[in-house]
Design a protein that fits this description.
It is built from 9 helices and 7 strands. It is of the alpha/beta class. It has one domain: Rossmann fold. The structure holds adenosine-5'-diphosphate and adenosine monophosphate.
Length: 213
């Protein structure tokens, strides 16, 4: 199963992608997590990506597309993957389509999680992330069992640098301008599924798994 997660920053893509990946036993691939790991390790790619991420802008396609296509060529992607945060532009979606087509494959489902902009700021300001395993929590809406500690791996949770309100507003603007057109792209591909992302995380997951079957 090859799945793409769509939706605004903070819509719940990461939260749901982790569970979908578990259900189908396929890797969860987050381009944001890959960039953050590179920033942590101070790689050249990380330093370049950080310039854009700090501004709430997209990392250029020239950097992002090659990185993602090389990741999905790994052996663990043979049975599929859940892409979280990619594609974010039409050229990214076209490149992904072309690369898969060369293997006689295609995206099976694009899940669009819909959440109004006015809910996004609250979600981002309370978001806490695991820098080790990519787990995502919210101080009120989805707290870990022990405050500040990842349920899955016991690592101390952090607040992302780009989750401050002014950057979030810019990220939302970037989303509407560059990423939202992908909804129509995948609708035209005949693989779009839309879910109401304002429900509880467990209900959103149920809706997604129901639609995937
Ligand atoms: P994205 O990957 O789309 O940026 P996340 O999965 O990181 O979004 O979720 C953003 C924030 O919203 C996190 O703090 C997460 O715990 C919280 N969240 C996710 N899904 C829901 C939901 N259905 N209801 C309330 N809060 C949610
Ligand atoms: P995310 O973790 O998905 O919220 O992504 C965090 C940031 O990483 C985004 O605001 C972008 O700056 C960058 N990023 C992640 N994925 C992509 C992508 N597919 N294309 C361009 N930039 C990306």
């Amino acid at each position: 199963m090859k799945i793409v997660m769509l939706g605004a920053p903070g819509a719940g893509k990461g939260t749901q992608a982790v569970n979908i990946a578990k259900e189908y036993n396929i890797p969860h691939i987050s381009t944001g997590d890959i960039f953050r790991a590179n920033i942590k390790n101070q790689t050249e790619l990380g330093m370049k990506a950080k310039e854009y991420m700090d501004k709430g802008a997209l990392v250029p396609d020239e950097i992002t597309i090659g990185m993602l296509l090389s990741r999905i060529a790994d052996k663990d992607c043979d049975n599929g993957f859940v892409l979280d945060g990619f594609p974010r532009t039409i050229p990214q979606a076209e490149s992904l389509k072309k690369a898969l087509k060369e293997q006689g494959a295609k995206i099976d489902c694009a899940v669009d999680i819909e959440v109004p902009d006015e809910d996004i700021i609250n979600r981002m300001s309370g978001r806490r992330s695991c820098p080790n395993c990519g787990g995502t929590y919210h101080v009120t809406f989805n707290p870990p069992k022990q405050e500040g500690i990842c349920d899955a791996c016991g690592t101390e949770l952090v607040q992302r640098a780009d989750d401050k309100p002014e950057t979030v507003l810019q990220r939302l603007k970037t989303y509407h301008e560059q990423t939202q057109p992908l909804i129509e792209f995948y609708e035209n591909e005949g693989v779009l599924v839309t879910v109401d992302g304002t429900k509880k995380p467990s209900e959103v997951l149920e809706d997604i798994l129901g639609a995937l079957k």
